[in-house]
Amino acid sequence: MAKQDAPLTKEALIKEVCRRIRVARSYWDAHNNAACRGERDRALAFYNTLSKEQKEQIPQELRVWLRYRSEKYFGAHRTPPKSARKSK
């Protein structure tokens, strides 16, 4: 994907956060954990730049999913992903 030159506006940023959370959820449902982790990290990075009022504009279902997955499955207490195994 190409990098954007200009930063996102408020509405575009909210829309991008929602899109990234939905993509992460689709990867989660497909049991693609590595891709889910990457999209969740990107969504969380965008989400953390939002103000409190902007965060409230994101649907509650998406916010709950992002927090739940972040804490339960990807938190610091979890074992980090391992590197690819070598085949013999």
Kindly list the characteristics that best describe this protein.
mainly alpha
Give me the oligomer status: single chain
Helix fraction bin: 55-70%
The end-to-end span amounts to 34 Å
Broad shape: elongated
Order of helices and strands: HHHH
What does this structure look like?
The protein is an all-alpha fold and 88 residues long. Helices cover 61% and strands 0% of the residues. The longest helix has 20 residues. 12% of the residues are buried. The mean pLDDT is 81.
What topology emerges from the helices and strands here?
Blueprint: H1 10-29, H2 33-47, H3 52-57, H4 60-72
Task: Offer a concise description of the structure.
By secondary structure, this protein is mainly α. It is built from 4 helices and no strands.
